[in-house]
Amino acid sequence: MVDPFVGKLSMFRIYTGEINSNSVVFNANNKKSVKLSNMYITKGKTQTQIDKASIGDFVAVSKLEHISTGDTLCDSKNPIILAKVDYPPSMENTAIAPLLKGDEEKISNGLTKLMEEDPTFLHKMDFETKQHLIYGMGDVHLSVIIDKLKRKFGVGVKLIKPKVAYKETVRKTVKVEGKYKKQSGGRGQYGHVWLEVKPLDRGTGFEFIETIFGGAIPKGYIQGVEKGVRAALQEGAIAGYPVTDISVNLYDGSYHSVDSSEIAFKIASAMAFRKGVLDGNPVLLEPIMEVEVEIPDDYVGDIMGDLNARRGKILGIEPEKNMKKIKASGEGFAPSATTTIEKFFPLFFLFSILFIISSKSNSNSGIKITSAPPAKPASIAIQPVFLPITSTTITL
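User: That's the sequence. What structure does it adopt?
Assistant: C-alpha cells below.
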C-alpha cells in the first residue's frame, strides 16, 4: 500500500520463524534478496515501530523494493513459494480524463502505485481510442480508486464512457492501380504501382508481400510502397477506422529514372490501397465478446429478454444446481434452475450489462466476458457506426 507520509508500505504475515528490522530475506518468486528496514505494527491509522516480529504477526515494512502482492519471502537457504491467492477478474471498466490539464503523468503514476497494492485493479492506455481506461470489480471499487487517487496523490479525474474501436475490411479480391505524377520541368515526382488487395481470415491482421518481376520497380522503392500502404491502413476508407484482415501484394508498376522517389511511391501506394478497399466490397467490423452468465432459474426470463435486445446469439445453456449457465455470443437467446448463458455480443452493448444483470437478479449472478473475433454488424441502422469504441479484451 502507499502511505502519503511514509511512502510505500509492504504488509505481510509471518508463518514460521522470526525477523528483525535489519534482516535480509529472499523473494522466492523473483529470486531477489531484499533488506528489511523500518518495521511497523499497524492499528488503523496508527503505526508503531518495532524491532522484531515472529510467527503470526502482521507486519508492515517501508520502502521494500522488488516485492509484489502475493510474493513469498523466506530464507535463501530454504526457498519456498506459497500458493498465490486466485483473485477474481475485473468486472467493470470506464474511461477517465484529468480535471486539470497537465495532470496526466501524476494520474498515471498514482494509478500505477494503486495497481501495485490492489491485484483486482488495472489501468492502461488504449492507443486505438486514445483513452485512459481503468478496470475494477464494480462501480464502488472504481469510486474508491478515484477517491484514493485524489486523497493520496492530489489529482482528480472525471469519468467518460469508453469508446469502442471498429475495424474495416474487404470481402473480395481486387487489383488496383495507383499513379502519382508531377512533371512540369526540372525534377518532378513519379510513382506507379499495381496492387492486389484480398481478404484474409478473421484475426489474421495484415500482410504485405511483393512479387515484382523483371525490375518493374527497383528494390529501393518497395519500402516506400509498404510505408504508404501501412499509413493508409490506419485511416481506413469507408468510416476512418483501421483496416484489418487484409493482404496487399505489390505485383507490378513502373518508375522514372530521374523523377521517381520513395515519397512518390508512398503516395501512389496509399492512393491504390484506398481504391482497393473501396472496390473490394468493404464492410465495417465491430468487436464481439463471448459472454457467460450464471443466474438462478427465477430470473432467466427477464435477463434473457435484455440480452436478446442487445443482439446476443445463444451458444448453449447448461442447467446447474439451482442455477442455469447460459453461453452467448452475438444474436439470439433461449432459456433453461441456475442457468449459465453463453452468448456473443457486440462490445458496444456490454458497457451497461453488468449493472442490468446484477439488478435483475438481485445481485445473485455471475458473469464472465472474453473477446471473440470481430464481425459485421447485423444492422447498421441500429449501430451508431461513427461513434468510436475499443477492441481491447475485457473480462468481467
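The helical segments are 104-117, 139-153, 219-235, 262-279, 300-309, 353-360.
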